[in-house]
Design goal:
There is one protein chain. The chain has 219 residues and is α/β, with parallel strands linked by helices. It has a single domain, classed as Rossmann fold (3-Layer(aba) Sandwich), CATH 3.40.50. The protein is built from nine helices and eight strands. The strands form two sheets. It has a five-stranded parallel sheet, sandwiched between helices. A three-stranded antiparallel sheet has the order 3-4-5. A hairpin with a 2-residue loop joins strand 3 and strand 4. Helix 2 crosses helix 4 (92-101) and helix 7 (149-159) crosses helix 8. The longest helix is centred in the middle third of the chain and has 17 residues, at 105-121.
């Protein structure tokens, strides 16, 4: 099995994070949650009250951003200026802001180098929404993970602390984000022409990972 970069793209709640972590562990390589980088930008914009629609203000903000991934006890931790923000970026509010912010070309350009620098040093599984189409068009293997909307909403509902939202509200939020991500002008969510699409609706994580490994072995 020979590979350099594997990309896993897809909409919210399709299982990208869980599958990417499991696949990278199976392959013995680094896992990179690129969506977390956009969530980190959204989190800092929210916490610092940045007017991100002001181009000059946004550029100044992006120039001071210091994001990095580190491993702590087999767990990938996201740092912003040295602070662990991993547990602060998964709220519905930050998710929706991340979807809007990620459509901004200045934000995407700022994070492009961060992602590619990680890939330069080691084999990795990159999870995101435009990994196979924009960031790593020459990746060894590309996957596009999908799932039924109701199943995706239930997965997100189960992830929330104390399930403090109605599952129908989460379904509507995901539907809105799907539309935003798929229709944005800059790097819209779509499978790469050479990506393999896998529907995880009725598959376990292990089944999805096994299917991916079979494809990687043939590549």
């Amino acid at each position: 099995m020979s590979f350099k970069i594997i990309t896993i793209d897809g909409p919210a709640g399709a299982g990208k994070t869980t599958v990417s972590k499991a696949l990278s562990k199976k392959l013995g390589c680094v896992y990179v949650d690129t969506g977390a980088l956009y969530r980190a930008v959204a989190y800092e914009i929210h916490s610092q009250k940045i007017d991100w629609e002001d181009d000059d203000r946004l550029e100044r903000f992006l120039s001071t951003l210091d994001l990095n991934f580190v491993m702590k006890k087999d767990t990938l931790v996201l740092l912003s200026s040295g602070k662990d923000i991993s547990g602060l970026i998964r709220t519905p509010q930050i998710s929706m802001l991340a979807s809007s912010v990620s459509a901004n070309p200045k934000v995407r350009a700022a994070l492009l180098d961060t992602q590619r620098n990680i890939a330069e040093s080691q084999p990795a599984v990159f999870e995101g929404r435009d990994m196979g189409t924009v960031v790593f068009p020459d990746a060894s293997c590309k996957f596009f993970l999908v799932a039924d909307l109701k199943i995706r909403a239930r997965r997100r509902y189960d992830e929330l602390p104390a399930a403090n939202q109605d599952v129908s509200d989460i379904e509507n939020q995901i539907k809105t984000r799907d539309s935003q991500d798929s229709n944005r002008k800059s790097a819209p969510l779509k499978p790469a022409a050479d990506a393999v699409t896998i529907d995880s609706s009725n598959l376990t994580v292990d089944q999805v990972v096994e299917e991916m490994i079979q494809i990687i072995e043939k590549a």
